[in-house]
């Protein structure tokens, strides 16, 4: 590989809890590639719910017991470098990687099916089960570093990988197509705003659930209609009126999402920001012939499809604010206030 330094600047997660567990250091060892890996100089990395959920131990089903506080239900290896959204440049490669990949600007596919030359089952999530992008240099299997030809800045491109691939995966699983009426909850967040754009690319009619203050902005990016979080779903939309629900919220209002779905409707979920425990009347599920899709692992074609959409300019980045990496605690605080639309991105280096 080329002349990368021995040590680098970055952020270690050293434990579960508050932002005091984010340790900023300048002596983190630079990772070296295995035979099928590439080394990426990170230029920007997005902030996501998963970063905060992992730090706080939210994924644990044992009252934030650190023994199961990761995506896979296993203990998280600490210290850990988080950061699932990465845009950067390939600066080094293992011996089995084609040399012409050096210098490519890439986006990292965050759902990893390979690491260290071994197939992963179940897949890992970049920045969770392995080190991620809140650092100057990172390593990933070459197959998960996707070249992107775009005039967008790196901090704009870093808004795409996690949110947009999650949204595209949900739409793919739910089989959203032209003419479908699609209800998107949490529509102002990174995944929700991505889902609006991606559903419109598919020719769907989009109904976005949001706060009144954000309604106009969501209409600007493609929503056909907005619904306030406080509105009665059935009164506003009517029973049996929605073909597919893209849910990132769950919580106490969840039963209404099933009530507005038409018979044969499809429900895809990849978040529970209003609460993970919901009340299900199983009769609604089977009498309406509903299909449920839990969405974490990306379908194989999702990320290549996303790269193609970026390169053709069919979707646009939505970056609310950028922070330098050393201000990661401030960035996460801003993220948790939920006053933004789209993504908050950390810039790395110059």
Describe the structure.
The chain contains 10 helices and 17 strands. Strand 13, helix 7 and strand 14 form a beta-alpha-beta unit. Strands 3, 4, 5, 8, 9, 16 and 17 form a 7-stranded mixed sheet that branches. The chain folds into 2 domains: 7-160 and 317-347, Medium-chain alcohol dehydrogenases, catalytic domain (Quinone Oxidoreductase, Chain A, domain 1); 163-294, Rossmann fold (3-Layer(aba) Sandwich). It is globular and about 65 Å long. The chain is α/β, with parallel strands linked by helices. It has helices at residues 49-56, 154-157, 161-173, 190-201, 215-220, 233-237, 254-260, 282-287, 302-311, 328-337; strands at residues 7-13, 22-29, 37-46, 85-93, 105-108, 111-115, 118-125, 137-141, 145-147, 181-184, 205-210, 225-228, 242-247, 261-269, 291-294, 319-324, 343-347. The mean pLDDT is 94.
What's the arrangement of secondary structure elements?
Blueprint lengths: L6 E7 L8 E8 L7 E10 L2 H8 L28 E9 L11 E4 L2 E5 L2 E8 L11 E5 L3 E3 L6 H4 L3 H13 L7 E4 L5 H12 L3 E6 L4 H6 L4 E4 L4 H5 L4 E6 L6 H7 E9 L12 H6 L3 E4 L7 H10 L7 E6 L3 H10 L5 E5 L3
Parallel strand pairs: 10-11, 10-13, 11-12, 13-14, 14-15, 16-17
Antiparallel strand pairs: 1-2, 3-4, 3-8, 3-17, 4-5, 5-9, 6-7
Helix pairs in contact: 3-4
